[in-house]
Amino acid sequence: MVIMYDELDIKILREMEKRPDFSLQELAEILGISKGTVRNRIMKLKNEGIILNYNVRINYRAIGEEDAFIGLDISPEEFINSLEEIKKIPCVKELYSTTGDHVAIAYVVDNNKSIMDCVKRITQVKGIRKVYPAFVQDILK
Predict the structure, then answer these.
(1) pLDDT at position 112, please?
(2) SS3 call for 128
(3) The pTM is what?
(4) How large is the greatest C-alpha to C-alpha distance in the chain, in angstroms?
(5) Regions in the chain scoring below 50 on pLDDT
């Protein structure tokens, strides 16, 4: 079953994306609708899996930590099990199944003394054939 989303749902999502620290009242004023309508729409979008979570974006280098995106090459027969094991590693903040150069990408964060230990731990997961780490140097946008 395909659920359709109207223009108001899309406007709410776009505004939330621009300003994750929004208040319901602010959002209602920007969109010219009631606070109750905003609340109900957001709850619907959360319940239907459209809004996954609310995030704070951190400049990890500024607090003495490092972050990296790790492209993963995983053997097809171990793909699901490998991803389940990688999800359990504490330094893995996000994990994506992808197409393109890598079958998955992990976003990892750790202090600068142990981020390589994190990468090494990922390489030891059964089914991992190769990892391609890209360490974040600066956030440009």
Answers:
(1) 73
(2) strand
(3) 0.77
(4) 53
(5) none
